[in-house]
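User: Just a sanity check before I run the rest of the batch. Below are the structure tokens for the first item. I only need the designed sequence back.
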């Protein structure tokens, strides 16, 4: 998979890109966990998400938020990171203007950023949020939910407890015909230690079931 760079709001952004053979294949952008807690695009969960999309026939991009790795700029508490994500999506869509679907996905902090991007981009068809930090960040913006997607959590997660995600979902209104799939990996911690294969299985099942 090639290393790529593209223009972001604060300068160069680095990423990893997989291109599907089919020019009309769906596309996906994957976002990594918190930059100030060691989060990068090479995080194991982020990589598994990226790999799952590639295995399911997507063209997919993962990237480093501003100030991470070789991406220019400085951490912006999630505000600027939304703009980084939007630039990543624009870059990927420009490479694949005939893509059948546009998906976004994120892990932990990356899922919080992803959900905010989702609310701003009506061109997005589906999303996957893994271990979204519902108890650590305000998610009130995520209602009504405009797009169907999946929330995946570990029942042993000590950083983003699944109970917080369930409480958030109970409060989340949905637009007509929107479906939110909720999946729990029993016994898994925040990083899906010893549950990486199960994580990939759940991701691929949802992706294949909803891919066009």
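Assistant: Here's the designed sequence for the first item:
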């Amino acid at each position: 998979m090639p290393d790529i760079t593209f223009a972001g709001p604060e300068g160069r952004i680095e990423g990893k890109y997989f291109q599907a053979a089919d020019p009309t294949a769906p596309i996906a952008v994957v976002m990594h966990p918190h930059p100030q807690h060691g989060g990068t695009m090479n995080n194991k969960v982020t990589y598994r998400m990226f790999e799952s999309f590639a295995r399911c026939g997507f063209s997919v991009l993962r990237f480093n938020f501003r100030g991470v790795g070789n991406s220019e700029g400085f951490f912006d508490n999630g505000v600027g990171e939304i703009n980084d994500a939007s630039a990543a999506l624009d870059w990927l869509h420009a490479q694949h203007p005939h893509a059948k679907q546009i998906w976004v996905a994120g892990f932990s902090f990356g899922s919080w950023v992803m959900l905010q991007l989702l609310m701003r981009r009506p061109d997005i068809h589906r999303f996957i949020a893994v271990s979204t930090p519902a108890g650590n960040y305000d998610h009130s913006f995520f209602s009504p939910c405009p797009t169907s997607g999946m929330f995946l959590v570990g029942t042993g997660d000590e950083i983003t407890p699944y109970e917080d995600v369930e409480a958030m979902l109970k409060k989340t209104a949905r637009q007509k015909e929107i479906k939110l799939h909720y999946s729990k990996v029993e016994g898994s911690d925040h990083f899906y230690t010893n549950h990486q294969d199960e994580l990939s299985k759940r991701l691929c099942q949802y992706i294949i079931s909803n891919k066009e």
